[in-house]
Prior knowledge:
The chain is mostly helical. It has a domain at 61-315: ABC transporter involved in vitamin B12 uptake, BtuC, CATH 1.10.3470. The chain contains 17 helices and no strands. Helix 1 (11-37) crosses helix 16 (347-366), helix 2 packs across helix 14 (303-319) and helix 13 crosses helix 14 (303-319).
Amino acid sequence: MKNKTPLLKRDGVQSLIASLICVILGVFIGYIVLLVINPAGAGKAILAVLKNFFFYPAGPARMKYFGSTLVKTAPLIMCSLSILFAYKVGLFNIGVAGQYVAGVGACLYGALAFHWPWWLCMLFAMAAGALLGGISGFLKAYANVNEVISGIMLNWISLYLVNILLTNVKEPTSPYTFKVLSTSPGSVMPNLGLNKLFGNNQYVTLGVPLSILIAIAIYIILERTQFGYELRATGNNKNAAKYAGMKEKRNIIVTLIIGGALAGMGAALLYLTGIEEWSCSQSSVPGMGFNGIAAAFLGCLNPIGAILSSFFIQHITNGGGYLDKTLYSAQISDLISAIIIYLCGFVLFFKTYMNRRGAKREDTRFAPEPKAEEKKPSDAESEKGGGAK
């Protein structure tokens, strides 16, 4: 009979516990910050961040704003998948923010300038993100340029190029692009009746279930296919992978191309719902790409975990909007997210601690009992025995 692995030594359980510890500590530290700023309303403020759409007493209103949270969770899932997919191959795709921006520019230009259908706009966004990822991958594979450096540079290049491009499809009296819902209704993603489930929220579309299906597909590719095994082998040791006959340079480029396509698709899943417009005067890279880093690591670099962590991060981000603005800044939710991602660096420490605790329990449980010392005959018994003789 096979020995069952102890509960605390299972990797999935350890990852879950470590993530929960990060979340609890992050929320607690955020509460301490609120106390320092203004102790009078700290309790209500932290509850407002955590409650988010539960802030509304009526059921339909809750479902409507719950749907809005899910709409913004879908692109965050895609960005986190982009990060973890590259990380499995030993790459840190910090250029996911720029790839996301490239996807925004491509899908909006296809929708507003050419009135393409939603699926073609999405493919265009994926191609734009993949192109940016491919540039970083090529530089990494053939020029040994660190993907972090090239990714950061491309983030800003893509931002300003998209700003210039989308000025052709923006409103004349504002820096924002035209509304997709009114300018090109055929470019809006279908809702498949999901809007009725979420309080007639017109922005809840196919993008929500599609992002979950993509996460499941990424899990299968990485864990159940030869291609995924080669990618992970390249990440563990590219020289060994090369010796085994794997094309490590091709794997690096393909990985970042796929990562870029995922980020570009995430942009399409948000902007093709019509929930937001792009500001052509934007001077900073959107936080969606960087939040993807937090979601990926909080989900312990697991595609299924990324779904849950992305929802949580978007949940508290939206919850920041319900704070009392006279007492606190809405960015306190971003601070909590930043603290959580910082604490994610201690996930390995938590896992190591749990392994040691489990090992100590096993040693105590299965340690052999000490042998009883042999009793030596007393002097009296020795003399008596001697007299008998």
